[in-house]
Each structure stands twice: as structure tokens, then as C-alpha cells.
Amino acid sequence: MNLMYTYDIHMPSRLVEGKKYATIFTLHGKGSNERNMFGLVAPLAEELIIIGIRGNLPLGAGYQYYELKSLGNPIREMFDQAIHHLEAFLHYATDKYPVDPDRRYLLGFSQGAILSMSLALTMGTQLKGIVALNGYIPGFVKTDYALRSIKDVSIFASHGEFDSVFPVQIGHETAAYLREHTERLTFNLYPTDHGVSEDNQLDVLNWLKTDANI
């Protein structure tokens, strides 16, 4: 396979031979890298596999998965390619490592959250769940993509009440759309800007522990 992505992988220090592990694939925000999201879920590193995926396009000192025409307006062709290549990467990693295909999670922030929600809608129950922090779902994903049911996909979505990049109304609109398609949604607001607070992190960890049964 011609891998499109560099990645960082953390596996439990005492792997049990033959055991399959719940796995979190992390997707960073614009200008960041594959190690950026690890700290959020590091407390779970002995219980599951954590794979950070680096965007394949350089941006300043970091990377991105696709470029924008304007804020909130992805270049469609690049976005389509990212969705295709990320799904292929998930299957690659599942074959290469002891990943439990029934307990695969995406965790994304900002651009990574946008991709995580879009992948949930295109992959359906190939994912056990997603964590989407401060993101939205592009309109063309809702109208043009071949969408799968997410009624059995667990979703933790959160947004900053004072988000200066994606105003909080975007978070409410995203949650309303998701509620129309699944009852397995947890949506929380936090008194933050475009970031992740300590309370947000703790809620994510507790949600993952419960949902992945770890």
C-alpha cells in the first residue's frame, strides 16, 4: 500500500498475544502534527492503541489534511481525497496491528473533528465511535456524499462557548444534525475559545472508558 500518511503509534507496554485492542486514531487541527492529540488520551495508553495520523500537506511548522478556499470552506477535491485516503489508512492499520475492528474510534480537533464526523457518516458502523472537538460537517458532505447510518455509532461532540474560529452556533447546528441521525450522541459546551479544557478532556476520557469498555 502506498501510504499517504506519516503516523505515530503507541501500544500498551504489555501486549497480550492474540488479543485485539480498542484503538483511537487521532486527527489534529490545521498546522499541527501527529503527536499533538496524544496528550488528550495518554492516560488510556496502557489500555488501548493510539495512532496519531499526520496531515500530508505542510502548513507552516505543521501540517494539514486539506486546504481551504476560505474559513469553513474546504477545497472539495482535496477534502474528498482526504476522506478516501484516511479510510484506506484505517483499514491498513487494522490489518497491520492488533486493532479490534469492532472498537475503532476517531478523535479529532478542528480540521480533525470535521474529518472525524464526515468519516463517521461515510463509514457508519465500521467505526465504533468518534470524538469531535470544535468542528462541523461540511454542507457538501450532507448533500453529496453516500451516507451510511450512524444510529449505532457513538459520538462525543463538544464546542467552546467562546470559539472565535467556529462560533458556538455552529456547534449547536452540528449537534442538531447529528441528533437527527443517532440517539447515541453526547454534546457538551465548555467555557473556552477554540481549544480543549481540562474538564473537556476528563469528560472525553470517561466517555471513552465507558463506550470502549476499558
TrEMBL record:
Extract the GO molecular function terms from the UniProt entry: hydrolase activity
Hydrolase among the record's keywords? yes
- Which protein are we looking at? Phospholipase/carboxylesterase
- SUPFAM superfamilies annotated for this entry? alpha/beta-Hydrolases
User: Where does the Phospholipase/carboxylesterase/thioesterase domain lie?
Assistant: 21-209
The uppermost taxa in this organism's lineage are: Bacteria, Bacillati, Bacillota, Bacilli, Bacillales
The answer to whether keyword GTP-binding applies is: no
Q: Which InterPro entries match?
A: AB_hydrolase_fold, LYPA1-2/EST-like, PLipase/COase/thioEstase
Query: What keyword terms does UniProt attach to this protein?
Result: Hydrolase
Organism, scientific name? Paenibacillus phyllosphaerae
Q: Family, per the entry?
A: Belongs to the AB hydrolase superfamily. AB hydrolase 2 family.
